[in-house]
UniProtKB/TrEMBL annotation:
Annotated ABC transporter domain residues: 53-276
Keyword Glycoprotein among UniProt keywords: no
Molecular function GO labels: ATP binding; ATP hydrolysis activity
Organism in which the protein naturally occurs: Microbacterium kyungheense
SUPFAM superfamilies (UniProt xref): P-loop containing nucleoside triphosphate hydrolases
Compositionally biased spans, kind Low complexity: 1-22
Matching InterPro entries: AAA+_ATPase, ABC_transporter-like_ATP-bd, ABC_transporter-like_CS, ABC_transporter_ATP-bind, P-loop_NTPase
Pfam families: ABC_tran
Keywords, in A-Z order: ATP-binding, Nucleotide-binding, Transport
Gene3D superfamilies to which the protein is assigned, alphabetical: P-loop containing nucleotide triphosphate hydrolases
Region feature (Disordered): 1-34
Protein name: NitT/TauT family transport system ATP-binding protein
Species lineage: Bacteria, Bacillati, Actinomycetota, Actinomycetes, Micrococcales
Length: 293
């Protein structure tokens, strides 16, 4: 766990060794340090390769309604953990659905890996009549895994989310946190290179959410999945992301992003998470005030 002092507030200006404030397109990118220094951003075999997800000049309108997303561009590297953060209604779910291929952009293009993506929502959407294990097995079956292998694979996936003991329970016998673990195991069972998560822990209590953050981080490190995690919770984004991308509202667009060099050992109560949250909240408030003006 990092013991960096809160005073090392992680602003770009305090971190010349982490790079001066950079710009990507016309958006400021903050490279955080020194509270986040020591470890480079996940050493990418990936960095040199093509992005896993490329969002290029994407706009979205529903019918004749207002512009929901306006010229959004974002490259996400393979294996990267990106948090998309923004106020309710700013277009986060719309963007995630576009990445998932559930809807088409009005303008612009989105490239995703051939293997596609698995999506996880706030509601676990498990089959209520199937046990945890059978729910995971169903995803394996849809993926074409032979019957003889499904049982064992499902158990090992449940084990990966610390739920092997509850494999034979049905959803109504599980807590909200346990159901989301099953949903995560099921998403992993689909074996897609990209995992899209839309406020998956928003309905959980703080302690359970905290545990799920640890689980998810462990799974991310173990599997090398590219994760796009949508949240309106600043702390959650600062706790989880390698990169936090802040969206503004009406129309939804990217206003700023932060890259966190040292992501190991973070906890929701870590000083660097608190410092980053303060900085992001400042920007978010400015954005909200600007919208209200
Ligand atoms: N299918 C749809 N038809 C019309 N409007 C939509 C549809 N989906 C989302 N919207 C509108 O797009 C805006 C952004 O919604 P959404 O992406 O759900 O925001 P967020 O996930 O950030 O809370 C909202 O104003 C919402 O009403
Ligand atoms: Mg949403």
């Amino acid at each position: 766990m990092s013991t960096a002092p809160a005073s090392a507030s992680g602003s770009a200006s305090a971190a010349p060794e982490a790079g001066a404030p950079a710009r990507q397109g016309d958006k400021p990118v903050n490279l955080l340090g020194p509270s986040f220094d020591g470890v480079a951003p996940v050493p990418p075999a990936a960095a040199a390769s093509a992005p896993a997800v490329r969002i290029d000049g994407v706009s979205k309108r529903f019918g004749n309604g207002p512009v929901v997303l306006d010229d959004v561009s974002l490259d996400i590297a393979p294996g990267e953990f990106v948090c998309l953060l923004g106020a309710s209604g700013c277009g986060k779910s719309t963007l995630l659905n576009l990445i998932a291929g559930l809807d088409k952009p009005t303008a612009g293009a989105i490239e995703t890996p051939a293997g596609g993506s698995a999506v996880m929502f706030q509601e676990s959407a498990l089959m209520p009549w199937l046990t945890a294990r059978r729910n995971v097995e169903l995803a394996l079956r849809l993926r074409g895994v032979p019957r003889s292998e499904r049982g064992e694979k499902a158990l090992s996936l449940l084990d990966a989310v610390n739920l092997a003991d509850a494999a034979d329970k049905r959803p109504h016998e599980l807590s909200g946190g346990m159901r989301q673990r099953v949903a995560l195991a099921r998403a992993l069972a689909q074996d897609r290179p990209v995992l899209l998560m839309d406020e998956p822990f928003a309905a959980l209590d703080a302690i359970t959410r905290d545990l799920l953050h640890e689980e998810l981080e462990r799974v991310w490190r173990a599997t090398g999945r590219t994760i796009v995690f949508v949240t309106h919770n600043v702390r959650e984004a600062a706790r989880l992301g390698q990169r936090v991308v802040l969206m503004g509202s009406r129309p939804g667009r990217i206003v700023q992003e932060w890259r966190i060099a040292k992501t190991t050992g973070r906890r929701i109560e870590s000083p660097e998470v608190a410092a980053l949250s303060v900085e992001i909240t400042d920007q978010l408030r400015k954005e909200i005030r600007r919208n209200a003006a």
